[in-house]
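Possible regression after last week's pipeline update?

I re-ran a chain I had predicted before the update to compare outputs. Posting the input and the new output here so someone can diff against the archived version. Not blocking, just want to make sure nothing changed silently.
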Amino acid sequence: MIRLSPMKLTAAAAAAAATAGMVVAMRKRRHAREAAPEPDIIHDFKPWPSIAQHLATTGPRTYFRPTFLGMEQLDTSSPALYVGNHTLYALLDVPLLMEHLIHERGLYLRPLGDRGHFDYPGWKQFLLKIGVVPANPENCDKLMEAGESVLVYPGGAREVWHHKDENYTLVWKKRLGFVRQAAKHGYDIIPFASLGADECYTILADGDDFRHSRPVQKALKVLGVPHLFRDGEAVPPLVRGLGPTLAPRPQALYFSFGERISTVGIDVTDESQLWAMREKVAAAIYRQLDELRAYREQDRERNWGKWRKRYAG
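New output (post-update):
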């Protein structure tokens, strides 16, 4: 039998009491969180100050030197649905796009995010803090009823984690929801394009490669998460950036905004009308991408420094 001195017993009792107190306090905080009403992610959201966003993007703006075309025709006088192409990973260009609009026009877009983003608690909380909302018709209804300008990438996870031969390809499948929502609420659609981010990386292996890889399939089954794979869609490609690293190449980024496209008169129950509008928006995005490519060729010769020309690839 182990005997403890009175001093050690006192210390042990104090430690036990402190531990018990911590457990009780944690339980109280947990119960308080569970009892508290869920925050209204639509109406309770408060945008970050413009200056804070401008300062936070100083590094990326210096590195990628973004250029914005079509700002003179961008009409932000009333809410609209902004629809564009999703580039690889979407972490390089989206923050710069959003920052530019709020800094230059005072317009804070509310992005609709793929449901997969909200499966990870830390990442979920960060996205909610910057105004991203889980993409579904109900949330889109609430945003538009509140008069918010909404940002959507119909290609979702499949487009942002595209395959080797799909740079600047719209992978919208059979999705018509964004047109239906815009028409339902009388929202104009503003098509926009983003160029440059897809060249920041070279894709070494994509979803198709992983889907046909037996070791990957076995690993997913062992981990019990094959459903997260979505048949190769919801898996980021393996990439190489600057040299052998994951640092993005210093590509210059280019953005373009098209004219508003009215959805007035569209019958939301008529798929042929929805498809016609979808194709009109897609054509506008592809046209802008072509215009940005032509602009980039001239800009490369005139304004790219030796360092950017050498390492952008």
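Follow-up from reviewer: compared with the archived run. Confidence is low (pLDDT under 50) at residues 8-27, 30-37. Marking as no regression found.
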